[in-house]
Amino acid sequence: MTDKTIEKDYIIDLKNICKSFDDTYVLNGISMYIRRNEFLTLLGPSGCGKTTLLRIIGGFEQPSGGEVYFEGENIASLPPYKRKINTVFQKYALFPHMNVEENIAFGLHIKKLDKKLIRKKVSEILELVDLQGFEKRSVDSLSGGQQQRIAIARALVNEPEVLLLDEPLGALDLKLRKGMQLELKKIQQKIGITFIYVTHDQEEALTMSDTIAIMHEGKIQQIGTPVDIYNEPKNAFVADFIGESNILSGMMLRDYLVEFQGVVFPCVDRGFGENTPVDVVVRPEDVQLVSEKEGMLSGRVESVTFKGVHYEMMIRTDAFVWTVHSTLMSKVGEITGMVIQPEDIHIMKRR
Asked: What pTM was estimated for this model as a whole?
């Protein structure tokens, strides 16, 4: 694929975006592109700058520096209503004095479309969000999940090329939120437009996204597919933020061989040089429990917690407390062995 072909695949291109409030930078040199028809999630802890970046894309904030390109055109100075972008906020901002049909059709009436066309569009979009027949219902009579669908329908009926979603599931209970994650992904795939989604929920990001951009302290830490980010974190922050991790200090002896906890382990990483200090990441579910004799490492079980589909055990070795997830339970006080396969050892540059 040529550079020109790749460029055409971008719908949004952010170049060195900076944003400061009262001399404090909340975004510090963000550069990234977003593809057409992609479900991209901006993921990070509170205060990392993800919502500010979303607001800059939508035109609700002006960057202190940098450029925002939409289909090759710099739109940094364009107001929100002139962008082919719509936004769904966490607070749905539905009009309580309007029924469902009036809420969804509000933007279409502003455009002065024909009334028959408006009714047709509202009917089609209600079918898309699985709320056909709700046209005359009061929005106050709807559940949280239904209100959220109406907010999405109101944004989509205007046929944007990009939909921005700022933690739209945050107000829902856990069961409903999980159901809506799947619904949102299904809607995005059905209509085939770009979704840019903001959340601090790691599971939500892993479930829904084609691509995840992890943010911390106003910078992008890593961009990749959910599988790549989970299995190959670029640094300790990413490893710790995406799922649970055991992060240890180690020494890369040479390609494919690392030492930590006083034991030499084969691994699949290379290119770190010889006798190089590194950080080692092992996911809790990748530690296999065996007898003490069979173990590459051994430790004493300090606690056991039942998590539904697995047990979470804290196992203390001489210099580290391991978090281990297993369907097999070892008892508190028991000495157990641990085995780690080469492909389950992930090497990172020392923080």
From this structure: 0.85
